Amino acid sequence: MPTRIGALAGDLIGSVDEPHPIEAQDFPRFQPRHRFTDDPEKEKPMKVIFHQRFYDVYTADPAAARGRMEAMVNALEGKYDFIEPEPASERDLERVHGRAHIQQIQREPLVYELGGLAAGGAMLAAETAFEGEPAFGLIRPPGHHASPHSCWGFCYFNNVAIAIRKLISDGKINRALVLDFDLHYGDGTVNIFGDSEEALYFHPEAGNRRDFLKEVERSLQSPTPYDIIAVSAGFDRHQEDWGGLLATEDYRAIGESVKEHARLRCQGRRFGVLEGGYNHAVLGSNVESFLEGLRD
Ligand SMILES: [Zn+2]
Fold first, then answer.
1. Residue 181 CA to ligand 1 centre (angstroms)
2. What pLDDT does 14 receive?
């Protein structure tokens, strides 16, 4: 589909102040290894999972704000291969969420559509990582406050948990390590996995930068074996965001720690998905810094 690829690349470059109306029949089908970049010859060091529909403003909350995704795409575009996810199926959602919860979200069609696409983005990031290439899901709505039967905090479906359950259900992994460096505790992720064998959940909470990075290291050194590292990457703990703690370079250090431990412990398998992060002025450079550490 060369015309469509060209159109997407063009849309991306000129997209900052434009709304993104897309007709229902225009909803793109899944294109594995679909490139948005204008440089198809050059191999990029990792995959970024993104879809134009993530520009849509689906609610009035800060995760859905206009300009938020644009800030990150502007920082990453051209440096990484962008590939498009397809929406998660109801069956994928049901591995984590109850019927009543899914039906509740379905009453808001746009939220349901984008929630499913975000979950599909996390699944594609996990699958790409499992196959040996690091990946980042540049997705919204976020997911770590979504529990099996409820949600809050700008979240609807638990993207990371849906991705992990899919890998487990396919018999590809037994256990994931979840590193959640968002400012907020991922209660949804914890409610989903509880004390099960499926996931080890860590949420560093140290009050200064140095101890926070040490806590990240300690989490990754968990004596329990794991088969992949999934990062709930929220950037709202930055010095110029709500948490007021981490410097931009700290995200690179976190990404490097994840890479090193993935190489030592789980054949390099690692992926991240976007959670929070609300200051558009620093969000792009923070995500870029994290990916510089995480990439090969
Ligand atoms: Zn948060």
1. 9
2. 35
